Amino acid sequence: MTGDLTGRHVLVSGAARGLGLKAAETLSARGAAVALADIDEDEGTASAAALTAQGRTAHFVRLDVTDDASWADATTKAVSVLGGLDVVVNNAGIEISDLLADLDPENMRKILDVNVLGTALGIKHAFRAMRPGGTAGAGGAIVNVASVAANIAFPGIAAYSASKSAVVRLTKVAAAESGRLGYGVRVNAICPGLVPNAMGTRLAVDMERLGLFPSVQDAVTAVVSLTPSGRLATEDDIANGVAFLASDESAFVNGVSLSVDGAMGM
After folding, report:
1. Any idea what DSSP says for residue 39?
2. What is the mean pLDDT of the chain?
């Protein structure tokens, strides 16, 4: 199977729903045992149970990505229930739209806390678990979910764009540190294009609310018009990219940002 992940042990943050859940589903379909990590215990537990009912190995672990102790506990539990840890997907993120002239400092702090600090802590605890002498100790891969917003200037999402640009730079620094210190952990990012899921739909609604586009459809049309591939991304498009970066097929891919955006951010 292309991108075979049989025998791999994977933690995905923000995996109760949306792109995180799709990534967990895709990775488990390729043979991985997955820990669905999320702050939403009810939905996360239900999502893990649904995968288990399909004959896959899946467990829920509670995780608040902004909390250092929560990350330590989640990675320890993931290693325990899965029998190891080879891949961490830092997917959890939030988007709150604001015009810069009306920027709400509290909104920006929330975005930076989840998207930047949450990713940095995920890298920290993935390194500690997967490096030599760690609780898993066999090396592995980290996949950070950034965004096409790290590569383009789209109105209304300045704080989100800044946070995802930071994720890209964190990825490169982490790859450099891992290599220099002999951790044996590859670190890459994926930059998805706009996906018409709950977050993507809310973004389009916000564009109308902020007066940037006359309607939701006009906002969507603008995104498509900026995309040479001529369509929005799907969750499968993004999850397949995550699976590639998690697999041995990308064994010599390290410190990169893989754009899965239909060339929108070129």
Report:
1. S
2. 97
> Per the domain annotation, does 4 fall within a domain?
no
CATH number at residue 125: 3.40.50.720
Active site residues: 160
Supply the range of the domain harboring residue 77: 9-260
The three-state secondary structure class of 140 is strand
What is the distance between the alpha carbons of residues 191 and 238, in angstroms, rounded to a whole number?
A: 8
Residue ranges in the chain assigned as alpha helix (H): 18-29, 41-53, 68-82, 105-111, 118-130, 158-181, 198-209, 216-225, 235-246
| DSSP structure class, residue 148 | G
Q: What's the number of domains the chain is made of?
A: 1
Question: 1: pLDDT confidence band, cut at 50, 70 and 90?
Answer: very low
Is 3 within the bounds of a domain?
no
Cβ neighbours, 10 Å, residue 66: 18
2 part of a folded domain = no
Q: How many CB atoms lie within 10 A of CB 101?
A: 5
Q: Which residues of 205-242 are buried (b: 16+ CB within 10 A; e: fewer)?
A: ebbeebebbeebeebbebbeebbeeeebbbbebbbbbb
Tokens for 211, please give them.
Answer: 């007066």
Dump pLDDT digits (tens) for 186-221.
Answer: 999 999 999 999 999 999 999 999 999 999 999 999
- pLDDT 10s digits, 63-89: 999 999 999 999 999 999 999 999 999
Question: Over the stretch 24-74, which tens digit does the pLDDT of each residue have?
Answer: 999 999 999 999 999 999 999 999 999 999 999 999 999 999 999 999 999
Which among 191, 175, 166, 195 has a CA at the least distance from the CA of 241? 191
